[in-house]
Amino acid sequence: MLKQNHSKFKFEVGTDEAGRGCLAGPVVAAAVILPIDFQHEFLNDSKQLTEKQRQILRPIIEKEALAYGVSFVYQEEIDKINILNASILAMHYSIEKLTIIPEFIIVDGNKFKPFKEIPHETIIKGDGKYLSIAAASVLAKIYRDAYMERIHKDYPEYYWEKNKGYPTKQHREAIREFGVTVHHRKSFRLLPNQLKLDL
């Protein structure tokens, strides 16, 4: 059973991101404030859920949340400030979108930067411990997957509708064959041997 709140505050927001380990596309973060009494039988870390379960949960989370926000930080910015900073920035943007000012922030992972004057706590594997972080992980994943499926139509040879930009064998083979696109993160090691020169 996932816990409802980490702090004693009523307006506690959970935040998480999706797409940090991808070679292409944005990093997407969500922030969710759930009512104190919120429960759902299969809400969990989005990685533990099927796509169908995530799609069932999305309208429930969006309808029942007291407030939620979703934000994208794109590959150009990732290349400028690095993926960790981009992930935290996306979380900050998603918290900024909330219609309620949160009293406390719980963050999946172990890295965060203070947001305004609001106290926060980082929680390793928080998406498998707290409902609000799990809800944020579901929204971040759904919004990012939908974006990758859209841009797949322009670049079908990279199979983003399946791999969502993650470094699968198929994705790396496509980079090797067709090169990089505007959506690829140029600061990432896109191919295992890209730093080796043929001499």
Walk me through what this model shows:
The protein has 199 residues and is α/β, with parallel strands linked by helices. The chain has a domain at 12-149: Ribonuclease H-like superfamily/Ribonuclease H (Nucleotidyltransferase, domain 5), CATH 3.30.420. The chain has 6 helices and 5 strands. It has helices spanning 51-64, 75-81, 83-96, 131-152, 160-163, 169-178; strands at 12-18, 27-33, 67-73, 104-108, 120-123. The chain has a 5-stranded mixed sheet with strand order 3-2-1-4-5, sandwiched between helices. A hairpin with an 8-residue loop joins strand 1 (12-18) and strand 2. Helix 1 (51-64) packs across helix 4 (131-152) and helix 2 (75-81) packs across helix 3. The longest helix has 22 residues, at 131-152. Mean pLDDT is 95; it is low at 195-199.
- The proportion of residues forming helix, as a percent range, comes to 25-40%
End-to-end Cα distance, whole Å, is 57 Å
- State the CATH class of the domain at 12-149: Alpha Beta
Helix count from the secondary structure assignment: 6
The largest sheet, given as strand count, sense and whether it forms a barrel, is: 5 strands, mixed
Assembly status: single chain
The CATH superfamily of the domain at 12-149 appears as Ribonuclease H-like superfamily/Ribonuclease H
| Helical/strand content category | alpha/beta
Number of strand elements: 5
Sheet with the most strands: spatial strand order: 3-2-1-4-5
CATH fold call of the domain at 12-149 = Nucleotidyltransferase, domain 5
Uncertain parts? 195-199
Strand content: 15-25%
Per CATH, the architecture of the domain at 12-149 is: 2-Layer Sandwich
| Overall geometric form | globular
Mean pLDDT: 95
List the helices and strands in order: EEHEHHEEHHH
Round the Cα radius of gyration to an integer and report it.
Answer: 17 Å
